[in-house]
Structures are given as structure tokens and as C-alpha cells.
Design a protein that fits this description.
alpha/beta; seven-stranded parallel beta sheet; globular
Length: 261
């Protein structure tokens, strides 16, 4: 299927591994020119190489989402090399695990500093150009913790729920400008982040990480964890011309485990 986004420009935050990398690969496969970003630019190079070897076009940019100057520099580099950003993928490192009774106000500030403030800065940078051109896609990688809060991931829930509220309001304001704003909520997808969460849970419970993973798999209706490429496919669809009437919504990619609300 031709998604009709060939030659568009995408800026994919935190795309050296995991879900960000999957988004970059999927968009590049559709002919999108992609800026791959990460704190260590050397880690971006293998992803750029993979895209180019498959016939795509990509560049690398150093990006620390906790550094305002770094965000501005990475976006400007993309514009200098490719032109204005048409597709913005919001992604970044999550806050530390913690339960409601253990987190501190400082932890909350850190969570918002990771999950809200950098993404607002990125949106503010690209939005004027999208409005001028009458076309844009803003897609955030969220978490099913937004929908069904996790006791051990309360900071992620708080930060991502705040981001979801901001993006919903944004979609109402810019929908008439040809810009869609959506959020994808992954469940248990096979990424390094999930490996770490399984290891942390295993340590707390005195079991092996494999036991934690097996337990999750049994609770998921499709009886397996998701593949990052499935996330990439969902993001590519939301970036497509065919999804021009899809905005202000959340797509759950969780194997059916999240209850319908």
C-alpha cells in the first residue's frame, strides 16, 4: 500500500533503539526522509546505515531531550539538510519506576521534564511551518499506563497523561490547518526498556526475568509480546495521507490486554 508520504521529512526523537528506531525504519520504508536522533550520535549511525542500505534516506543528529539547546540544534540540523519537518515523532526516555507512596515532588518534576516539556518545545518549533504548508503529522509514543495506571510506573502515568491532555487540546486547535495529532500507546513490546522493567520486577519478587515475562505473556490475549515493527507500522499509518481524518485519538497497541473504556 502506498501511504503517499514519500519525500516528506520526519524528525524521530530518541530513535537509536526500541520503538523510536522502529518508527524511523517504518517511515523510511515509505520514502520519508528521516532524521535519526539520540544522545550519542554514534548510536544513530547504524540506524542511518540500515535505512540507506534498504534504499532509504536518513541523517543523524545528536539529541538530548533534557537539553533545550540540543533540541533546537537537532531540529535546525534537520531543516538545513532536508527542509521543514512534516512528521514529528515524540519519544524519549521514561522516568524511573516508582509507586504512589514512594515518589517525591522532585521525581514528579523530573517526569514532566522528560515527558512533557521537551515535546512541547519540539511542537512549538515545527508547528508554524506545518500550519503555513497546511500539512503536518504529530505522533507521540505513549504507554498503556495512561489508560490503566501501573502501581510501579506512576511517574510514567502522570507524565504521559499530561502529555495526552496537551496533545488532545492541540488537535482541536490545529485540525483545521491540515495537521493531525495522535498518540500510540504500546503495551509490552520487545524493547530494551521492557527488558529492564522485567529485570527490576524480578529483583523485587525474587524470581527470574523469564518468569516475569512468561507471566505477562499469559495475561495478554494474543499470548505474546509485541514486535517493534508492529509499532512502526501503526505510526506509519497515522503519518499517512489515508489517516488525514484521524486526529485527537489514541491507538492502543497492546495485544488486547487494555480494557475498553
Amino acid at each position: 500500500m502506498d501511504l503517499r508520504i514519500s519525500n516528506k521529512v520526519a524528525f524521530v526523537a530518541a530513535s537509536t533503539s526500541g520503538l523510536g528506531r522502529a518508527a524511523a525504519l517504518a517511515l523510511a520504508a515509505e520514502g520519508v526522509r528521516v532524521c535519526v536522533t539520540g544522545r550519542d550520535i554514534e548510536r544513530c549511525i547504524p540506524v542511518v546505515d540500515e535505512i540507506e542500505q534498504a534504499g532509504g534516506t536518513a541523517i543523524a543528529a545528536a539529541l538530548d531531550v533534557l537539553d533545550k539547546d540540543s533540541i533546537t540544534a537537532a531540529l535546525k540540523h534537520t531543516e538545513d539538510e532536508f527542509g521543514p519537518v512534516d512528521i514529528l515523532i515524540l519519544n524519549g526516555p521514561g522516568p524511573k519506576p516508582g509507586s504512589p507512596t514512594t515518589v517525591t515532588p522532585e521525581d514528579v518534576a523530573d517526569a514532566f521534564g522528560r515527558l512533557v516539556q521537551p515535546h512541547v518545545q519540539m511542537v512549538n518549533h515545527v508547528l508554524p511551518g506545518m500550519r503555513e504548508r497546511g500539512w503536518g503529522r504529530i505522533i507521540a509514543i505513549g504507554s498503556t499506563a495512561v489508560i490503566t495506571p501501573s502501581m510501579q510506573l506512576v511517574l510514567s502515568t502522570m507524565g504521559r497523561q499530561a502529555l495526552a491532555g496537551y496533545l488532545k487540546a492541540l488537535s482541536l486547535e490545529v485540525g483545521g490547518d491540515g495537521i493531525t495529532v495522535n498518540m500510540v500507546h504500546p503495551g509490552r513490546i520487545l524493547t530494551p526498556r521492557i527488558d529492564q522493567l522485567d529485570a527490576d520486577a524480578a529483583k523485587r519478587e525474587g524470581v527470574q526475568p523469564e518468569d516475569i515475562r512468561r507471566q505477562f505473556e499469559q495475561n495478554i490475549p494474543v499470548k505474546r509480546l509485541g514486535d517493534p515493527s508492529e509499532m512502526g507500522a501503526a505510526i506509519a499509518y497515522l503519518a499517512s495521507e489515508g489517516a488525514a481524518y484521524v486526529t485527537g485519538t489514541s491507538l492502543r497497541l497492546d495485544g488486547g490486554i487494555t480494557p475498553i473504556q
